[in-house]
C-alpha cells in the first residue's frame, strides 16, 4: 500500500479540534486512570456509513491518522465532495470505490451483506440496516462471511465469535489496513507520553488508603482472596458483559484467552 507523507495536512472541511479530558468526566472525577498530556491532535471526520450511495469516488491518497490504528483513504467523489473512509489493505491511490446495494467485489467497495459471497473478508459492519459501521474497524482486522441463512448472515468476528447479522446491513470489503500495528514497539516512555498515556502504578505499590492492594511491607501479597479494582470491585477474569438483547444472535461465543 502506497502511503502519502505522514505530515500531509488533511482537508480542513474534514477536521475538527477535540478537547482533551485528562480521563475525567463532566463532574471532574477521574474515570480513566493514567491519562493526560500528549501532543495535540486533529480529529478526522470519517464516513462510516452510506452518505454517498451510488456515487463513484477515486482514492486521492492514503493518510496516517493519529487517532486510529488503521490508515484512512481520502476519496474524491464524482460530485466534487471529499471524504475519508477506512482504508482496506489492498487499496491503492487511483483506485475507484463505490457504495451501493450490489457492486463489484473489490477492496473499498461497500454493499449489503446479502450480496457478499461466502468466504469474503469484510470490515466496518453495521448493526442495523442503513446504519453506520460499528464493528471491525481496527488495524489488520476482518470478519469472514460463513453462511447466509434466512434473513441473517453468519459472520466469524476477529475474536472468533460467530454471530448472526441482518443481511440488509452494510459492510465494506477487504481487510483493514496496517496489520503490522500489532508489532509496533513503543521503545521509549516519551512516546507513550506524547500519546497522552501517563505512567501506571501497581496497586500493591500504593498506600492502603489509595488502593485495596496497598499497604504491607516489602513484597507482601495483596492480602485478598481475589484482586480488586481501586474502587473495590472484583478484577481480573470477572465477566463484565451484561445480558443484552443481542445475545440471541450469538451462535458461538469467543474463546477465552489463556
Description:
This protein has one helix at residues 189-194; strands at residues 15-17, 42-44, 57-63, 72-77, 82-86, 96-97, 110-112, 121-123, 125-126, 133-135, 143-149, 152-156, 162-166, 170-173, 250-252. Strand 12 (152-156) and strand 13 form a beta hairpin. The strands form four sheets. It has a seven-stranded antiparallel beta sheet with strand order 7-14-8-11-12-13-15, with no helix packed on it. It has a four-stranded antiparallel beta sheet with strand order 5-4-3-6, with no helix packed on it. It has 258 residues and is an all-beta fold. The protein has a domain at 12-180: OB fold (Dihydrolipoamide Acetyltransferase, E2P).
Silhouette = globular
Helix content: under 10%
Order of helices and strands: EEEEEEEEEEEEEEHE
The CATH architecture assignment of the domain at 12-180 turns out to be Beta Barrel
Q: Sheet bearing the most strands, described?
A: 7 strands, antiparallel
Oligomer class: single chain
Query: Taking all residues together, what is the mean pLDDT?
Result: 92
Work out the radius of gyration: 22 Å
Task: Tell how many strands the DSSP assignment holds.
Answer: 15
In spatial order, strands of the major sheet run 7-14-8-11-12-13-15
- Please, what is the CATH homologous superfamily of the domain at 12-180? Nucleic acid-binding proteins
The CATH topology name of the domain at 12-180 reads OB fold (Dihydrolipoamide Acetyltransferase, E2P)
Amino acid at each position: 500500500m502506497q502511503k502519502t507523507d505522514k505530515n500531509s495536512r488533511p482537508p480542513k472541511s474534514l477536521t475538527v479540534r477535540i478537547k482533551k479530558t485528562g480521563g475525567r468526566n463532566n463532574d471532574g472525577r477521574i474515570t480513566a486512570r493514567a491519562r493526560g498530556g500528549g501532543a495535540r491532535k486533529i480529529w478526522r471526520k470519517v464516513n462510516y456509513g452510506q452518505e454517498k450511495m451510488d456515487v463513484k469516488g477515486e482514492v486521492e491518497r492514503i493518510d496516517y491518522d493519529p487517532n486510529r490504528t488503521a490508515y484512512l483513504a481520502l476519496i474524491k467523489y464524482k460530485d466534487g465532495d471529499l471524504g475519508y473512509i477506512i482504508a482496506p489493505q489492498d487499496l491503492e491511490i487511483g483506485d475507484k470505490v463505490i457504495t451501493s446495494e450490489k457492486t463489484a467485489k473489490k477492496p473499498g467497495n461497500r454493499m449489503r451483506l446479502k450480496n457478499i459471497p461466502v468466504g469474503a473478508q469484510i470490515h466496518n459492519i453495521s448493526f442495523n440496516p442503513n446504519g453506520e459501521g460499528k464493528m471491525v474497524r481496527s488495524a489488520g482486522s476482518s470478519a469472514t462471511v460463513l453462511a447466509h441463512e434466512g434473513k441473517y448472515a453468519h459472520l466469524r468476528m476477529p475474536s472468533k465469535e460467530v454471530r448472526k447479522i441482518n443481511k440488509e446491513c452494510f459492510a465494506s470489503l477487504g481487510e483493514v489496513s496496517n496489520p503490522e500495528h500489532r508489532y509496533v514497539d513503543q521503545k521509549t516512555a516519551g512516546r507513550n507520553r506524547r500519546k497522552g498515556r501517563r505512567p501506571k502504578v501497581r496497586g500493591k505499590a500504593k498506600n492502603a488508603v489509595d488502593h485495596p492492594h496497598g499497604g504491607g511491607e516489602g513484597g507482601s501479597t495483596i492480602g485478598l482472596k481475589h484482586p480488586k479494582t481501586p474502587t473495590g470491585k472484583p478484577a481480573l477474569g470477572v465477566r463484565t458483559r451484561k445480558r443484552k438483547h443481542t445475545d440471541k444472535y450469538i451462535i458461538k461465543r469467543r474463546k477465552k484467552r489463556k
